[in-house]
Amino acid sequence: MSYFDEMGAEDDLRDPYETYSAWLRQQDNEALIRKHHDAERVFRRTGITFAVYGQDEAEERLIPFDIVPRIISAREWRRLSQGIEQRVVAINAFLEDIYSKQEIIRAGVLPESIIAGNAAFLPEMMNFRPPQGVYTHIIGTDIVRTGPDKFYVLEDNARTPSGVSYMLENRSAMIRLFPELFRANRIKNVENYPDLLRQSLESVAPPACSGKPTVAVLTPGIYNSAYFEHAFLADNMGVDLVEGSDLQVSGGRICMRTTQGMKPIDVIYRRVDDAFLDPLTFNPDSMLGVPGIMDVYRNGGITIANAPGTGIADDKALYTYMPDIVKFYTGSKPLLENVPTWRCVEKDSLAHVLDNLQDLVVKEVHGSGGYGMLIGPTATKEEREAFAAKLRKHPENYIAQPTLSLSTCPVFTEQGLAPRHVDLRPFVLMGGDKVRIVPGGLTRVALKEGSLVVNSSQGGGTKDTWVLNDD
What we know:
Layout: E1 8-9, E2 12-13, H1 18-25, H2 29-46, E3 49-51, E4 60-62, E5 65-72, H3 74-98, H4 103-106, H5 113-116, E6 138-147, E7 150-157, H6 164-177, H7 179-184, H8 193-202, E8 215-218, H9 227-237, E9 240-242, E10 247-250, E11 253-258, E12 261-265, E13 267-270, H10 293-298, E14 303-305, H11 316-319, H12 322-330, E15 337-338, E16 342-343, H13 347-355, E17 360-364, E18 373-375, H14 381-393, E19 398-402, E20 408-413, E21 416-425, E22 427-430, E23 435-437, E24 442-445, E25 461-467
Parallel strand pairs: 5-25, 7-15, 8-9, 8-13, 13-14
Antiparallel strand pairs: 1-2, 3-4, 6-7, 6-22, 10-11, 11-12, 16-19, 17-18, 17-19, 20-21, 21-24, 22-23, 24-25
Helix pairs in contact: 2-6, 3-12
Pfam families: CP_ATPgrasp_2 (PF14403)
Domain Circularly permuted ATP-grasp type: 69-446
Protein name: Circularly permuted ATP-grasp type 2 domain-containing protein
């Protein structure tokens, strides 16, 4: 299978990489090896790790960082950002509709079963409109590329998308290691993301807020796999990082303990899953959330970002309807296409998938992180047969997609550059005033030769993503 190389061959270099390639040809390989090890030391000293559950020998891992940037032209980014904005606006409109009049179901665009039987749908959110009508304050849209102008949305992350801290630390490391590259290239800024995030969160303050909004980040605690990111974002926004035990309901508000007494919070950026957010409404055994927070929320005393119940937009079965959802709410065809997808719950689709497992990628509709999936071309006959049994037993739990010829970007190895498959997670902020999209995002890279799995929990790494500025 042939793959689109985003840098291009040495004798047919693509325009975005010209300046970088000219610089690279002048570099000594031994010096680059030292820079590569310097980057490792920087990340280890900073404490940029993630937890891998169920693997005692490696509870905390360093996410591998590649020193060769991924470079996107201004023209490519304009097209991508327009499509991303259209999609996230449609997702927010869908959530507002599905928790109120459900007109998309009445119109026959979406089957009622995909909502009614979905564990991520929260009846507690019915007929409640969050402040400013914003459900998805922070979204990560995963995008793959197969050719010069062929971009596809692989999945939507509307619940609690992670990875933005790695995007920011990648940029910080590159500026530190290669300052001359930033003088020679006009690269759009991502370092202001924490300021944009805070502005976006402040713009959706609840009715009870009077004055400058107080924002806090709610974390499950130090044992969460993304705790580094929670602390990083709170610190860089200049807001408090709190746990459920730090908060309580007082006077119809959510208040946090401070040295000056209890202080009301206006906006909580929560990194706690729905089920654990409020033991009085959801899981009664939860020790991570705040008892009574949902009542305060419904009464206008707090804004929760992202809103409870947004996880239904992450469902991979719902993903198959996204082109129809975009058109229903925006009146236009999607600017960014979905990857062609078979719904295994449909009899004909299931038959096709079972007959072609060796060529397909099969995913759990509620899966994430690269788990619970089958990559047909790299699976053994025994693995495919075992997965086929799962499909026959619970076809409603799976969707299938073709094995895409994902684009590659060069990574640095001690033997020289080598192509590896990549995807892209741009981060979108939806406030009460406007949509903000950070130029670029987090490029994840499958560091194992031939692998298509980019997730850090599955051995993937990350790169700095440059969007060139032609202004």
